[in-house]
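During the second year of the project, the team shifted from modelling isolated chains to modelling whole assemblies. The rationale, set out in the original proposal, was that interfaces cannot be judged from single-chain predictions alone. As a representative example for this report, we include one of the complexes processed in the last quarter. Its constituent sequences, exactly as entered into the pipeline, are reproduced here:
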Amino acid sequence: MSELTPLHAIGEFALINRLKKKVHTAQASTVLGIGDDAAILAPAAGQEVVVTTDLLVEGIHFDLSFCPLRHLGYKAVAVNVSDVAAMNATPTQIVVGLAAPSRFTVEAVEELYEGMRLACEAYGVDLVGGDTTSSRAGLVIAVTALGQVAAGQAVRRSGGQPTDILCVSGDLGGAYLGLQVLEREKQVFLADPEAQPELDNYEYVVQRQLRPEARLDIIHELRELGVTPTSMIDISDGLASEVMHLCAASGTGARLFSEFIPMANPTLEAAAEFNLDPITCALNGGEDYELLFTIPVADHAKIKNHPDITVIGHLTEQSDAVNLIAKGGQAVPLQAQGWTAF
Amino acid sequence: MSELTPLHAIGEFALINRLKKKVHTAQASTVLGIGDDAAILAPAAGQEVVVTTDLLVEGIHFDLSFCPLRHLGYKAVAVNVSDVAAMNATPTQIVVGLAAPSRFTVEAVEELYEGMRLACEAYGVDLVGGDTTSSRAGLVIAVTALGQVAAGQAVRRSGGQPTDILCVSGDLGGAYLGLQVLEREKQVFLADPEAQPELDNYEYVVQRQLRPEARLDIIHELRELGVTPTSMIDISDGLASEVMHLCAASGTGARLFSEFIPMANPTLEAAAEFNLDPITCALNGGEDYELLFTIPVADHAKIKNHPDITVIGHLTEQSDAVNLIAKGGQAVPLQAQGWTAF
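Output from the structure prediction step:
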């Protein structure tokens, strides 16, 4: 049996020293990482810096009864990298604030950081600083990500033009159905702690929930295809809410075709099993971390054969509002249910 | 009677819109502030970027029963600006993560942001982004601050040389005694809710605790005096712990003279009343947010008449260890009690 070390037994400085040993910096722009009052970065000449921050709060964003700490660490980084990617930027550094209950062990915190380290490696990001402290209640993870983009090349939500094509990466709705599966298994477990979780048939949707990937690959591929989106946003709160944000910022309406919304087979199967409308899951489920972006009609030919980009509609004049077009052609004004944090 | 709005009544997006209206950006390097997936910054040519993050957690770092929200907002910004200053950098932007219990009202969150806005104004910093979410337990504030410094001019903890003079700004121990006063008044109030708090005689120490200032002024003045510290750290955990950090990073020892440690009269009076050794309060109390730095002996003449900089000792060879020299000349090896977060 391995022995576990409670956090209070080693204290903050010793914990930081333990975590620091596993962190290595690789970015050219990292001058100084962990260990001083602040990290020092030297952005490359001609680059702008983007910065974004996200909080993950226990009991709100994750449930430790079914969320492995390593996946949680990975996700905390990925969701911030996703925001950087949505600016058309390349992530470079993160800083991490962690408030952990003293019931946590050093080994648990190390497992969380191992997930962050794996994500940093996957996305080519340096962990350059942070803050660790105690929490009277649950675990809180605050990640701030920095990225770089050539000056003037950042893509905002506001650049969409009427007639632009509306595209989405990957497929939607999976993360929400993964959450339904995990919550059902939790109830089964609570009723009968001897029960084994039945997750084998839900691998895809569970992974979409527990370990989403930021679509940095799409950013790189669009660059290779010579396509710069006119506007972009990442899908964290559900497609409906993100389309509404993008249209509000761009001063446009949109027509979104429900039959074009990309859904993976395991997502459709899980939706059927849970008696949920898959389109609703995609529109309002959230946490898919795919990219929603617009491109000029003239660029359509460049992306139409991309296996992981789907055209789901187009922008319109603002006066046309944001409409979901059902299979029969009927237009329904879109309601952003989104995910309300309070 | 004014009506208060519970957070859940307006939701996250409406809250962000309300907060956003009061935020204006002024920094030349802020290209895009709140409202997109990330903020966009354009650091000036030849500048490096510093980044630091700090969490403030209810029940650990602050007690809402005696900490006004406006002061708390101010402090959350100031403690991060203090870290930027400790790198010899000028703060430029912050992003703010906020997890608030749903018992909070919109007005309470606005009061917190008003404090942050005042601090941003005082330090010339733009609030460029953030994340707001719910919390099952207490309030958590995660601030990340960015700053700029001419390439190569950042001051690290590690640059101290044996024989360098050890200096501190302002005075120490006040914040800790302010906390003692506030906690005593809280106990009085809990025992008798009719009792009025008696804080009039403790204005100085209470303010040191509730609304510390980052010593950005010292950074500017040192520049005007033509002095670049060889090493620097801000005093958040107590002088003892910070001297130990600085010496460990610089590979030196130090001699610290207890009679030179600057203490304000109200701090000395409060210490006497609480039967506390004032030197212990300065060494281990923490939260003073003054700057501890080293300069070459040759620069001593430049700072010796500065009313707010005190020479408290000097660095030595590492083999001499870190010693506190008592009034009688007796050397006592310093113990970093610091503040243990767990």
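The mean pLDDT of chain B is 93. The radius of gyration of chain B is 21 Å.
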